[in-house]
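> forwarded from #structure-qc
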């Protein structure tokens, strides 16, 4: 076999290949780094639920939802639910490491009534608020319901305006603290409302009629609006539509 001598250009090519291989190695290391980070994040999740970061600044929903309310609502109220939930979960080997969806989807599996109530209230508080933040967007990015969501809304309510009226009515008639929801149930959309921090994902706890896949929810606890709107819940609800992130809401359909 004739020994081949690399020409100058080929050496250059070889160097490039080596460089590329080193680069790929570095890429693999970087990927490894990401993997380690993901593992670390997983370990943190197992050790406790964390306050999610908002996708917009605290004043990003102004003037419809004010920055002071957002700061307290996210940084104090939501955080308190998480702290209480973590305390409850860490007290029980059965609950540790479970996702929030698993915990809330089978609350009746928690036999200790006090512990169950704590997970229901604070786990619900964590889930509901996470969902709420993800449902909102600065007014300039609010957008519109997708064509599919618009069709589903029209089929169930006649029009988007009629859906908003039914949603606001559910939110207005929720006595005391709670939530109003647009849910998808058996392939159709419906409006429901839940007291306290109950959510449409709490099977076996919330009445069957209120169980479904949440597409949109609004927090009607006074802490969600009182600083800006005082007793005028209707004004808060009217302003709320300006900051609904329809892109995120539409993606939940189906
Ligand atoms: Mn709240």
């Amino acid at each position: 076999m004739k020994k081949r001598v690399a020409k100058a250009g080929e050496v250059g090519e070889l160097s490039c290949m080596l460089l590329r291989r080193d680069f790929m190695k570095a890429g693999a290391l970087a990927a490894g780094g990401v993997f380690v980070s993901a593992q670390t994040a997983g370990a943190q999740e197992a050790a406790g639920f964390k306050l999610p970061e908002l996708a917009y600044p605290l004043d990003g929903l102004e003037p419809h939802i004010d920055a002071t309310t957002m700061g307290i609502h996210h940084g104090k109220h939501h955080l308190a639910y998480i702290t209480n939930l973590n305390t409850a979960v860490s007290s029980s080997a059965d609950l540790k490491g479970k996702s929030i969806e698993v915990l809330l989807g089978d609350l009746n599996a928690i036999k200790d009534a006090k512990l169950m109530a704590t997970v229901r209230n604070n786990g619900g508080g964590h889930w509901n608020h996470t969902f709420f933040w993800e449902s909102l967007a600065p007014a300039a990015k609010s957008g519109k319901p997708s064509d599919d969501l618009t069709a589903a809304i029209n089929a169930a309510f006649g029009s988007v305006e009629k859906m908003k009226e039914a949603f606001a009515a559910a939110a207005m008639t929720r006595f005391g603290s709670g939530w109003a929801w647009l849910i998808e149930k058996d392939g159709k959309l419906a409006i429901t409302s839940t007291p306290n921090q109950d959510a449409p994902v709490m099977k076996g706890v919330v009445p069957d009629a209120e169980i479904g896949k949440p597409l949109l929810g609004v927090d009607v606890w006074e802490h969600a609006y009182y600083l800006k709107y005082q007793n005028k819940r209707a004004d808060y609800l009217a302003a709320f539509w300006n900051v609904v992130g329809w892109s995120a809401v539409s993606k939940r359909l189906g």
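QC bot note: Strands lie at 178-185, 188-195, 213-219. The chain has a mean pLDDT of 87.
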